[in-house]
Design brief:
By secondary structure, this protein is of the alpha+beta class. The chain contains 2 helices and 6 strands. The chain starts with 8 loop residues before the first helix and ends with a helix.
């Protein structure tokens, strides 16, 4: 699974460069784990970021991505082809269950 913080283009480029500068390897990995009430985003050189499902304000979908737009101008991009277990339907069901 992949994710990325949604930022304006210039700010996003600067954040990505800063992330790369602190990386030990040339490739940067990110992992998103889904739990009953929240998701956690893990990356190579940062503390995990936890996001409650109730903070997900919008879901957008492109041909290859699911984009979760969250409170506080945060976003999580999930590659549809990047699921190790589960599926996009699982994500939608977790979010639906949380909103009930």
């Amino acid at each position: 699974m992949a994710w990325s913080v949604l930022l304006p283009r210039t700010e996003g480029n600067g954040k990505y460069k800063a992330l790369c500068a602190g990386a030990k390897e040339k490739s940067i990995w990110r992992r998103v784990e889904f739990y009953q009430d929240s998701l956690s985003v893990f990356s190579e050189n940062r503390q995990p970021v936890n996001i409650a499902y109730e903070d997900v304000e919008q879901i957008k979908e492109t041909e290859g991505l699911i984009v979760l737009i969250c409170a506080g101008r945060r976003g999580v991009m999930l590659a549809k082809a990047g699921f190790v277990s589960g599926s996009k339907e699982t994500v939608y069901q977790l979010l639906a269950d949380a909103s009930e």
